[in-house]
Amino acid sequence: MMLSRSGVARSARVRQPRQLAVLVLGATLTPVPMAQSPAPADAALGAALEKKMAVILQHAQTASPDVRLTTLLEPEINAYLQVQGAPLLPEGLTDPTIRITDAQGVTVAAFIDLDAIREQRQRSWLDPLQYLGGRMPVTARGTVTSGEGAALVSVEEITISGVPMPVQVLQELVGYYTRTPDQPEGTRLDQPIPLPYGISELRLALGEAVIVQ
Questions:
Q1: How many CB atoms lie within 10 A of CB 210?
Q2: Which residues pair with 203 in a beta bridge?
Q3: In terms of residue numbers, what domain contains 130?
Q4: How many domains does the chain have?
Q5: CA neighbours within 13 Å on the CB side: how many for 181?
C-alpha cells in the first residue's frame, strides 16, 4: 500500500513513542513521576526531539551516498515521552523513562497497569503475574547492540516494585504493548529487532543515542 508523504508522517507520529522504546531499548521500563504541569524547559526538550525525528523520517524518504547521523539526547527522549508523546502511549503504560548508561547499557522504566495484562489469559499458580495487579513500577536493565538494520537486546534484570522477576515476565509485557495485527505476539526480545526508517545501527554512549542512516 502506498502512502502519501503526509500519510507517512501521521503514521510515523503514532508509532514513534513505541519505536523509541525499541530503538533505545535495553529492556523495558526508574519510575519518575510526571509533574501535573510540565516545565517549559521539558516541553522545549521534547520539541527538540520532535524536530530530530522529522529529520530521521526525511532521511528515510531520501537517498544519499553519505552516512547521516542524528544524535538523540537522553533528556530530550524522556521529555518527549513525558510531554508530547504521552497521549500516544499505549493505554496502561505511563511515565516511561530511559537511561543510557554506556556504549551498550540501557535501563527503561515505567508505571504499568498490570490488570489488563494479567487478565488476557488463564494463568497457573506459578505465574508471577497471577498475583500482581494495579498500577506498578516496572524497571528493566540490559544491553543493546546493533548493526545491519537490526538491534539485539540482552535482558539482565527486571523488577516490579523492586522485586526481581523472570525475564519471561518482561517478554510478556513488551509483547503486549508492541503487538499489531500483522505481529500479534509483538516484539520478541530473543530475536533481532528490525530498525525502522532505514536505520542501520544505533551508537550508544552515556546519555545519548546516535541514529545512523
A1: 13
A2: 210
A3: 5-212
A4: 1
A5: 0
